[in-house]
Amino acid sequence: MRALQIAATGMSAQQMRVDTVANNLANMSTTGYNARRAEFADLHYQQHTRAGTISASDGTLVPTGVQLGLGTRPASVSMQVQQGVLTATGGDLDVAIEGRGWFEVTLPDGRSGYTRDGGLKRTGDGLIVTSDGFEVAPGLTIPTEARQISINAEGEVWAYFSDRVEPERLGQLALASFTNERGLEAIGSNLFVETEASGPALQSVPGEDGMGTLRQGYLEESSVDPVRELTEMIKAQRGYEMNAKVITAADQMMAATAQVR
Amino acid sequence: MDNAGYTTLTRQSGLLREIQVLAHNVANLSTTGFRREGLVFSEFVRQLDREEEPLSMAAANAHQTYLVQGGLTMTSGTFDVAIEGEGFFRVETSEGERLTRAGHFTPNAEGELVTPDGHRVLDLGGAPVFVPADAGQITIARDGTVSADGQPLAQLGLVVPEDPSSLRRASGVLHSVDGETRPIENPVILQGFLEESNVNPISEMARLVAVQRAYESGQKFLDREDERIRNVVQTLGR
Predict the structure, then answer these.
(1) For an interface test with B, which of A2, A42, A257 has the most B Cβ atoms less than 10 Å from its Cβ?
(2) Residue A58, φ and ψ in degrees, nearest 5
(3) How far apart are CA A80 and CA A38, in angstroms?
(4) A131: closest CA among A122, A142, A139?
């Protein structure tokens, strides 16, 4: 009775769909979060009567045969890379990326991490870091006596001082992009690391090589659409129930078999 | 003498296969681009000894893939494409060219458009579709033309098999074709949408109940048949 196992693959697929929805909803207000979507594919097929089998002595061929499928499997849970809504925060180090691109940060183990969370902070020494304290490339330091800082669309950081009229250019924030952004590996805390599938990071600056531009005083909201997630959850729940129903039916058929004398 | 039993047995094993097909359809309720499958039962007549009546048995000997359009879900993904109407995307696998309706594509590290399993998507001419890494806005037009910042890159090819019955299923929502394929006249491709599975849960559930009851009545029949033979043996043995 393979129907039992087949329906079980269906149930675990729907379970995974609910898990994905739960994670998306939990991250409804995570800055720079991209919604994930679970994709499924069918499992292998078992050949009962091979198509093209000779069915009669005059050489008639079976046109379609009998192929029985064995259920479903998860194909991918990938993020939908899309622009989230920008919210004005007024923070001078809140920088949203409008368009493609990722901020590059240095992780404690020396690797590079990538994030779209532009809620940047400064350390006691004035170094620009992420909320977790990781240095943002190219490692700009804001002088303590700076009165105000301004970041333009190209990522240039300018510091204003109370004793001078002309501002000082501190440097330019870098952005990185990938051929396959969906291939990035999420490591939590809004951070991603590069993989074989994503391809190497293409370093550039905002506004060049197809990169987006920066917007100071804004943060990119999560791109989760609650309505879509809720409909997805309803579908997953009903799908789960229907697979459970198949299991019940298969079980009752087995019980009927067992009762035959 | 046991012919009634054997005939019922072919029916029962056919129903068991059918519930497997139903389970497979229900398990793939949310598989993008999945096509519902069905079994076709047919009678085969067995010639017994010359004096007796020929015996007719039921066997599942054909398999059908229903190519009805599935619902479209909006995902807003740049490389999510759904086909409206007939046609299949062309995909290159290690076993040769395959067809699929599942349009959840993504560029790989080399910039080629691939399926979630990593198979390359082919354009109208049979070449992989290449998306440059520094491309800004990617749009896919209704006729399948992929363009970056207004510059056309490639055209996704939609094909149909010359002989619809030559369509075979392979895992990963793929189909293989034995004969030739031809491009379709007016392809309609929608960007930002995915085509859902075309399994209709209501009809599957109704069929499930029908199959289950048919199986039970078959078992009941076998029971009666057993009783009848028992009676015969007892009566004659007296």
Answers:
(1) A42
(2) -85, 10
(3) 11
(4) A122
- In sequence order, the 6+-apart residues with CB closer than 8 A to the CB of B25 are B36, B37, B199, B204
**pLDDT greater at residue B69 or residue B48:** B69
Pair A33, B108: CB distance under 8 Å: no
Query: Do B113 and B175 fall within a single domain?
Result: yes
Structural domain of residue B59, as residue ranges? 3-67+199-237
pTM of the entire structure? 0.83
Question: 142-161 in A: which are within 8 Å (CB) of B?
Answer: none
Residues B169, A261: C-beta atoms closer than 8 Å: no
CA-wise closest residue to B88 among B165, B156, B155, B146: B156
Residue range(s) defining the domain that contains residue A200: 86-220
Are both B186 and B120 inside the same structural domain? Answer: yes
**DSSP 8-state secondary structure symbol assigned to residue A10:** H
Any idea which residue has 């499930």 for tokens? B208
The whole-angstrom separation of Cα B215 and Cα B205 is 15
Cα dist from B185 to B85, B90, B102, whole Å: 11, 16, 20
Structure tokens belonging to residue A202: 């293409």
User: Mind listing the pLDDT tens digit of every residue in chain A (261 residues)?
Assistant: 788 999 999 999 999 999 999 999 999 999 989 899 999 999 888 877 777 777 777 777 777 777 888 999 998 888 887 888 899 998 889 999 998 899 999 999 989 999 999 899 989 898 999 999 999 988 889 988 888 899 999 999 999 998 888 889 999 999 998 888 888 999 988 999 999 888 889 899 998 888 889 999 999 999 899 999 999 999 999 999 999 999 999 999 988 888 876
Q: Decide if B123 contacts B101 (C-beta within 8 A).
A: no
Task: Identify whether residues B189 and B203 lie together within a single domain.
Answer: no
Please indicate whether, in this complex, the C-beta atoms of A10 and B28 are within 8 angstroms of each other.
yes
Question: What tokens does B79 get?
Answer: 């490389």
* Closest-CA residue of chain A to B40: A66
Chains A and B form CB pairs within 8 A to the count of 210
Reported confidence tier of residue B46, pLDDT bands at 50, 70, 90: low
Test mutation, B16, B20, B171, chain A, max A CBs within 10 A:
B20
- What ranges make up the beta strands (E) of chain B? 37-46, 55-65, 72-74, 81-83, 88-93, 96-100, 106-107, 113-114, 120-122, 138-140, 145-148, 151-155, 158-161, 167-170, 174-177, 181-183, 189-191, 193-195
Which of residues 154 through 193 in chain A touch B, CB cutoff 8 A?
Answer: 177-180, 182-183
Residues A63 and A98 reside in one and the same domain: no
Q: What is the pLDDT of residues B30-45, one digit of tens each?
A: 999 999 988 887 777 7
